[in-house]
């Protein structure tokens, strides 16, 4: 995987699908129309124009095989410019964005163990990465821990299950920090459960809440994971 990152540019398109994955999370499909050729690497993001002067960053949650359509996944639980704008969009509405941006991508060399630690919509850029790993037919052992506040926040689990059937060395775990009495899975934060099997042969990918990302990076360094094998993206919660 030799990366020549595309230069971010202004693109224009329209909404082709809008889906509530749960009552807090929207998945938005956008078709890029002008210029026609939009390309990205799994893990990158776009900056969506949410009013005349302001853009908001959202990771691309779809794979390159769906181009010129791209998907973004975002939480709309709070009142903010980005979430309110996306909630107001309808099928066929014009949109504009700048992209692709970011360097949160799979490295050229994959180690024996790949550990993904994400919270909430930090799962979005991991979805196309998993598709990329499937296409690469990697022999790496891949483990994903996803943290949500409660069961109602879970999304795209059917996709993760399909990855388990396609990637023989892939397994995922959902961790709920505020579970109901019915929840039988991991209870707590993802930082309570993940383990490093082989420090020298593990690469770590972290995405989501900035505090979680910072905490995990520091823990991994203390465990002996070299910073060159830690890849991360922090999701910033913008105010109004």
UniProtKB/TrEMBL annotation:
UniProt-listed Pfam families: FAD_binding_6, NAD_binding_1
Chain ranges of the FAD-binding FR-type domain: 8-107
Gene Ontology MF, one: oxidoreductase activity
PANTHER family: NADH OXIDOREDUCTASE HCR, PROTEIN RFBI
Lineage of producing organism: Bacteria, Katanobacteria
Protein name as annotated: FAD-binding FR-type domain-containing protein
Top-level taxonomic group: Bacteria
